[in-house]
Amino acid sequence: MAEFTAADLRGSRFERVDLSGAQLRTVDLSGARFRGVDLSGVTMRGVELVGVDIHGEIENLTINGVDVGPLVEAELDRRYPDRARMRPTDPAGFRAAWDIVERLWGETVERAGRLRPELLHESVDGEWSFIETLRHLVFATDSWVRRAILGDPSPWGPLDLPWDEMPDTPGVPRDRDARPSLDAVLALRHDRMSTVRQVIEGLTDESLAGHTEPVEGPGWPEPRSYPVRECLLIVLNEEWQHRLYAERDLAALEARGA
Fold first, then answer.
1. Per residue in 80-104, pLDDT tens?
2. What are the extents of the domains in the chain?
């Protein structure tokens, strides 16, 4: 355990550091940036949250005695009417949700295609480029559909891109220097989205309520059994959230290109 009292740690970088149970008192975190940080069970008293921007999973977050999680969820559903359909409960609902995903991503890809190709490899505010976002979605499909549901223990290709905080894992690629063309990545996306479509079209009430068979070998997700519905909900959530991020960043790239 380290103790810092009256220390100047401005500009410090903490990566893969365990600060669970840490005590922060009279600490200046203004301008700090958190990414891939687990804040579960954190208690804050006497804090000043002004001009704060938070994107992430929000559940049981109480601010001044008010659980704001349901308020945030309700507002997001109001802003995006299709969002509530990303939480289906039966096979027909999953098919309808995937129709929406295909339609929305088709519009987003068309928008991206109007930009200069080099802009699609540019990061906006430290986030993934558009091409990297598509590569990550290929990884998500390979992991939760081809590995977890279909049982391929090592479904990843060289352009798959795990999330940044995932530990290096044997057999799972992570080439951040690759610069594939939009067409090359879209070919992978088309193949993976077709796979999801086939799985969803084949769903029955019984198969949706079932569990996957554990696969052998290292990778993601971990080799154990998962509810089929949970695997597909994860894919829907990945598709929904990353399209919103892509649309946000495309707007910035359009302004930059102009």
1. 999 999 999 999 999 999 999 999 9
2. 54-86, 90-257
